[in-house]
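Troubleshooting: if your tokenizer reports a length mismatch, compare your output against this known-good record of 473 residues.
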Amino acid sequence: MIEKVKPKPTKSRTVPGAEERLYDDLKWAGLQWDEGPNIGGPYGPYKQSQRTPLYQEHADKLLQSGHAYRCFCSSEKLRDLAQRRAILGLPSDYDRTCEGLPSPESDKRASAGEAFVVRLRMPPDPPEYVDLVYGTVGKPMQSKKAHNLGEISYEDPILLKSDRLPTYHLANVVDDHHMHITHVVRAAEWMSSTPKHLTLYKAFGWKPPLFAHVGLLQDDNRQKFSKRKGDLDIRKFADQGIFPEALLNYVALFGWSNTNKSDVLPMPDLISAFNLKFTKGNTIVQPHKLIYLQKKYARKYIGEGGKEFEAIVDKILEYLVEEFEASSWDHVGGSSPRPVKRREQIRKSIASVLQQRADNYSTPEAFFDNYGYFFFHDLSPRVWTEDFLSTKLTKLVDKLTAHMEEVGEAPEKVDRQMVHHAVHSYLRLGVARGGSGPAMHTTIFLLGQDVSMQRLNDLSELLSNEHQKESVS
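Known-good structure output:
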């Protein structure tokens, strides 16, 4: 694995510390590169900004061989050309105004300091190629509409900008050749540029790598995922408590035709199973798939009870301490004045709940959404509302009352299952505040007798207050 750092196009988009964060994020994900800026390697340097002389050298070779030419057209002229062609419904290609400049004149203007870019001279018939995903990709043709309008133009891409820095077209070809890259796997939006890159390989006399183009990642609205919007911010997933193994597994499945029976593929299995059988077209990213894989890995880690399980417990405890006021959970772990001992008791409580609900853990936030009643003594505002109590209890009482009226003087008609369910619902309403979770006897055991009885007393008091309100009204 080779790590190459490409600079931002402009200083305004440069983020301080971004490079270091990139390394940290990749390490968190369990990816270790064999060559790169911070560890070196045989084909460095690995920062594009440090390879500028190499790109300029190869651009000069293309100028000397006649495969490229200098373009002195101003940005205003190019903008006017693009606008005119846009009005005609044509792509904003170049009209080769500078292509026919004699070499002595071009050299003289460049030596005098006149601004220029270096363009690749594309052949009349760009090469077709075999894509490992899409098969044979045909040759693009000049638009008949352009011919009819007398607007002949050429896709002569810029290789070297006026500041003497390379574009992607030149940098990727030069780097891939010198770094001995054999396969280029990239987004399908680069398919139309591949003939330009093949033309560059031919101009240099180099053997091109194999190309495989994969679909773009899109959200539910079929909008392209954007790095600038943070759509796939690795740090965000780490902060949420997503396992690196789950995230890697999730990303590896994007657009890939996995033929295995299971989608749960740890890194060794991904390596052995990987191939280039990608689906054609773009991929809709489905967040629920990540949660599915997260739960699968969580169940495995919790079942094994090893260091991964301990890390989950620590992450949940960290979330508890950082996100909630201590006064809301300071009863957990007893009344020991020793913080270390109380912290250990809280860890045990978290571990116990996890072991009971191993199949349902996803993130620390979801953990407290589902099982917060094990840790918070305050009545949850979103659950213990007047409307919630009235609705739940009225339904429960009405159901029992109706059934007892049906039973009358015949106790053998009592629906034991229904009564058991009603009592169970009352207990869960009081002890677990109506939340889902382990079986009721397990919940009471984990909470302890004192906490469980206190919560039932709280519910009884609330019921009494509700009854008094109804009597007054």
